[in-house]
Amino acid sequence: MSSRPQLIALGEADSWDDGMVFGTGWVDVGDEWWFYYSGYDGPHGDPASRQPGIGLATVKKERLISLHGPRDGGVVITRQLRWQGERLFLNADASQGEIKVRISDGKRKVLEGFDYEDCVPLHADSLRHEVKWNNKSMTALQGEIIRLEIYLRDADLFTFQAGTETAE
């Protein structure tokens, strides 16, 4: 057995895909990625006794890997970014914990009104959380060099994105 991570694992013993699986790309369907794959119920070396099948594996969009914050919390800090959006969106699951974001300049000096205590905490699972601060908008930061300092407590961060539209 390979020590490499598997996107689609072999099926249970005696199932149609317990010998080998072959995947391709994905198809965007709503809030999911769909992976069609073929599988066989036998190993490579015994083609006469193998029976094929086609399967479907699904995952929420952009959720193949995450950064997970421990139970007592941890922080992920981005490199310097030239901010181009009006809003910050996170693809994240904070349903068991919490996510807060603060914004600092290129040298990590926290920008007034964008500290953790100014951030409205996230406590849900969403492909598109809009991060908000009590009295500030990121619109004023357009063109500025910033860093995002994302606090994760028992939460998963998959992606972040700058946007101009509102959250769905």
Structural write-up:
The strands form three sheets. Strands 1, 2, 3 and 4 form a four-stranded antiparallel sheet that branches. A four-stranded antiparallel sheet has the order 5-12-8-10, with no helix packed on it. Strands 6, 7, 9 and 11 form a four-stranded antiparallel sheet that branches. The chain is built from no helices and twelve strands. The protein has strands spanning 20-23, 27-29, 32-40, 52-60, 67-68, 74-77, 81-82, 87-93, 98-105, 125-131, 145-153, 156-163. It is mainly β and 168 residues long. The relative contact order is 0.21. It is elongated and about 70 Å long.
Please report the number of helical segments: 0
Residue share in β-strands:
35-45%
* Helix-strand pattern: EEEEEEEEEEEE
Q: Globular, elongated, flat, extended or rod-shaped: what is the shape? A: elongated
Structural class: mainly beta
**N-to-C CA distance:** 42 Å
Strand runs, count: 12
Largest sheet: 4 strands, antiparallel
* C-alpha Rg (nearest Å): 21 Å
Helix content: under 10%
Low confidence ranges: none
List the helices and strands and how they pair.
Layout lengths: L19 E4 L3 E3 L2 E9 L11 E9 L6 E2 L5 E4 L3 E2 L4 E7 L4 E8 L19 E7 L13 E9 L2 E8 L5
Antiparallel strand pairs: 1-3, 2-3, 3-4, 5-12, 6-11, 7-11, 8-10, 8-12, 9-11
